[in-house]
Every structure is written in C-alpha cells, then in structure tokens.
C-alpha cells in the first residue's frame, strides 16, 4: 500500500453521531488503496474506522468507492435505529387533547417538546385536600423553571362538569396544561395510574414506568412524596 486511508483525512473528529458494532472489512478508496478496519461511525461526511492497532481513523466519505460509501451509510442508519429510544406511551394519545389557562380563557394547548417525565395530577375543585395541595404544586412549578425541561405537569380533572374544571384552573391560575374535560377519563394510558384518592400525583417516564406516586406500601400517603421526587429529577431545584 503506497498510502494509507488515514493520510486522506481532511479534519479532526468532533463528534461521532452514530456507533455500530460492525465486522471488519476491506475499505477501498478512489485510488484503489485498501485498508482492513471496523466501522465505528459516521460524522457528517467523515467516516470513522478502527484499524488493527485499535486506533480510530477519520477519512472523507467521498474518498471511498461508491460501494463503500453506501455500506457506511447503511451501517450508520442501522446504528441510529438500534439506539433509538423506545416510543412514548403518551405523546400520541394526548396530542390535540390539551388545554391551558390563557388570560381569562382556557384554550387549546400544544407542548413545544415532549418532556422526559410526566407528572399526572388528578384533582378537583370540590376536594378540600386538593385545594390545599394545588398551591404547593404551583409554587414549586413556578419557582423552578429549570425543572420544566425535565417534566411537565398534566392536570386531569375529577370535577363533575367542564365548567367547574375551567373555573378551578382559572381560579388557581394553574400554570400547566390539562387534558380537556371530555377526555379526562377516557385516556386509558393515563387513567390506569389513578389511585383511589385525590389529590393524586404520579410521576412516570415516557414509556410509562412509575418513578413516584402518592402511595407507599399500598397505602395512600398523599402527593407530597411525589412532589419531592420531582425536585430530585431536577437537581438544581428543590421542592418547596
């Protein structure tokens, strides 16, 4: 070999976008030079290979034969698909079903991005313990803006009418969205978490795993412990 592919690289590796477990193969450049190496990843138009010496090499993808360029792209696509996070249980079922306080109205609401965790809050205006806890949750939510990047509170009303639900939301100035009244009892993916008492707060990840709820050893203990867990999920904040 007159010149290794390592000498053809144009710039240093900044970030490997995808990583795959691939078998060693012979790579050939446009000049006919070859090298035995493992596919590591594809960083834009730069191919990253691991040579027999265990060291990574970066080469321009365009310097390879068409066949090797296609193979590298297939490997990168497969790696991305393999490492992708499992689909969200909740994103699809709540899209188009959220509302939020907007001035003096309760209007349709769309989340800008899906949170890492959901905090589903089951509550009602007629529930005295709920009326006592809701201000605590609001204080935490408003006082910890950084935490909103980690989770989103979603209110599920247990009021008897939509009017009562909206009055409760506006009266408390709830800063989080709610599932609209007609759907609040219909989304099985969410209502299955509901306990026997309210206020009920349950924190789950996108795949539906319970991180914290309002029960301990099968007994209802209230939402304070779940609120404390929310503080832990956002390390720079603390439940108040």
Report on the structure:
- β3 and β4 (56-60) form a beta hairpin.
- The chain folds into two domains: 5-83, SH3 type barrels (Roll), CATH 2.30.30; 91-233, 3-Layer(aba) Sandwich (Glutaredoxin).
- The chain is of the alpha+beta class.
- The N and C termini lie far apart (68 Å).
- It has helices spanning 66-83, 91-94, 128-143, 162-172, 188-191, 224-233, and strands at 25-28, 34-43, 46-50, 56-60, 98-102, 105-108, 117-123, 151-157, 178-179, 200-205, 210-212, 215-216, 219-220.
- It is built from six helices and 13 strands.
Question: What are the key terms here?
Answer:
single chain; 4-stranded antiparallel beta sheet; 2 domains; 240 residues; alpha+beta; Glutaredoxin; 4-stranded mixed beta sheet; SH3 type barrels; disordered N terminus
In brief:
By secondary structure, this protein is of the alpha+beta class.
Number of domains: 2
Averaged pLDDT: 83
- Largest sheet report: 4 strands, antiparallel
Low-confidence stretches: 1-23
Named CATH architecture of the largest domain:
3-Layer(aba) Sandwich
Topology (SSEs and partners):
Elements: E1 25-28, E2 34-43, E3 46-50, E4 56-60, H1 66-83, H2 91-94, E5 98-102, E6 105-108, E7 117-123, H3 128-143, E8 151-157, H4 162-172, E9 178-179, H5 188-191, E10 200-205, E11 210-212, E12 215-216, E13 219-220, H6 224-233
Parallel strand pairs: 7-8
Antiparallel strand pairs: 1-2, 2-3, 3-4, 5-6, 5-9, 7-10, 10-11, 12-13
